[in-house]
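input
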Amino acid sequence: MWYNKIMVWLLRSPLHSMISSGIMIIGFTGSKSGKKYSTPVNYYKIDNAIFAMCDRSRIWWKNIKKNSDLDLFIKRENFSGKGLVIDSKTQVEEALAIIYKHNPQIAKYMKVEMVEGEPVLRDIQKLSDNTIVIKITLTA
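output
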């Protein structure tokens, strides 16, 4: 996407604070080429894990299924992590429920109704067909 280069530049610049509280750069290795790639993604830190979501139609996440080693650039700091691609419908729904429960402002943006602090399952189910979740555990 044409705007990814702009986002990466902004995240690496002194102006990063405008967007870096919710967007990071995820670096991964191409499963066929062995080449290093990076892309900006929204992220959500929950307990000791970092969650990222992307549209299933994007293909970059498939590389992480084959090589889970990740380089993360968050708030102008480098981290290493292991990524777990969550792509089964049921597991995506469970992961989205966790993300939205901890980030109700995102639920509202995604049109997921919250009832007593819990996301409504039918709303999550509508999103789960087209969503991939990556759960990242920091390693260093």
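quick obs: The longest helix spans residues 89-102.
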